[in-house]
Amino acid sequence: MESKKNENYHDQQNIHNVRKMRDVLDTLPGFCKQFFRGITEYTSTRTRLAYAYDIRVFFEYLHERNPYCAKMDISEYPISVLEHITREDIEEYLEYLSYYEKDGQIYTNDERGKKRKLSSLRSFYNYFFQSELIKNNPAVLVPLPKLHDKEIIRLDADEVAILLDQAEDGVNLTKAQKRYHQATKTRDIAILTLLLGTGIRVSECVGLDISDVDFKNDGIKIRRKGGYEAVVYFGDEVEEALMDYMEERRHIIPLSGHENAFFLSMQNRRMSVRAVENMVKKYASTVTSLKKITPHKLRSTYGTSLYRETGDIYLVADVLGHKDVNTTKKHYAALEDERRRSAANKVRLREKKDE
Fold it and tell me: What gap in Å lies between CA 120 and CA 117, rounded to an integer?
């Protein structure tokens, strides 16, 4: 068996997802394997795993609420079970998703959660319908829930400065947090500065290897959603923060299998997404109690700053790694409107007459 030492973060994540996927497939009807094989070419392991979880919730609902489906174990369902499902069944399923309990835990879904689960179900039904393995496609008859636009939460310029100051001096941290602050502050400043100065995703940040950081050209090589590689360039502030951390990093002996990781935890392992999320939350809570700041909000902060500075929505889309510029436009619609309004007084038709 090949050593994990030769696998990068993204390879390890894919292996983890594949293993999880096998466990979930064991709990699903046998015909589901055909669907997941069929979508392998154009989906990531993470997307397929998310689909599998969503579809499992659907079958668990049917097993609990549908008299026909309750007669047999989920793993024994034939593909013909899909023919017994009506549009009304799926509409009731969406209502059920608002609030349900499983293994003593409560689950809730808002419009976004319901839309994702219905989208998964539509893809599932579409595959078998287009393969002519079922004659009816009730999922396509159910409209996707209408989403209400959410205000984009981002840090203001002064809040960005305060956040970085907090990471540097730790004045408002708790006593317990201050105990570890000295040991982690250079790393924490480097991560926060990198997220705020490039807009990369938290998964792209923790996935960085030492060889991915090029100080000569001030760029980092990252793996984007969808698996393709891209180079993102950084400015002087990011360079300084990364170099300060790299100086510390040279004196750390990583655990076996984590030698290539750029950012290390206090246990000398590659940092996890959850660890970065908790770190951002720790510092952000000392800056603002009204905004729930996550690494994704730091990405939005960068996108907002870049758009305000350049006015180029296509550049923002490219740097953030959005495949469709409409995604970017949707996120920064308020800023687009702000720029359009500012155009109203840019062109003067006649000079004002002196009074």
Answer: 5
Q: Whole-angstrom Cα distance, residue 31 to residue 45?
A: 19
191 contact partners, CB below 8 Å, separation of at least 6: 205, 263, 271, 276, 279
Residues forming a β-bridge with 213: 220
- Centroid of chain to Cα 153: 15
Q: How many CB atoms lie within 10 A of CB 249?
A: 18
Measure Cα distances from 198 to 53, 78, 310, 345 in Å: 32, 49, 15, 33
Q: What is the DSSP letter of 151?
A: P
Residue 300 Rama label (left phi>0; alpha psi -120 to 50; beta): alpha
The pTM assigned to this predicted structure is: 0.79
131-146 pLDDT per residue, tens: 999 999 999 999 999 8
Fold (CATH) for 157-342: hpI Integrase; Chain A (1.10.443)
Return residue ranges of the chain for CATH 1.10.150.130: 4-141
Locate 128 and state its tokens: 């078998």
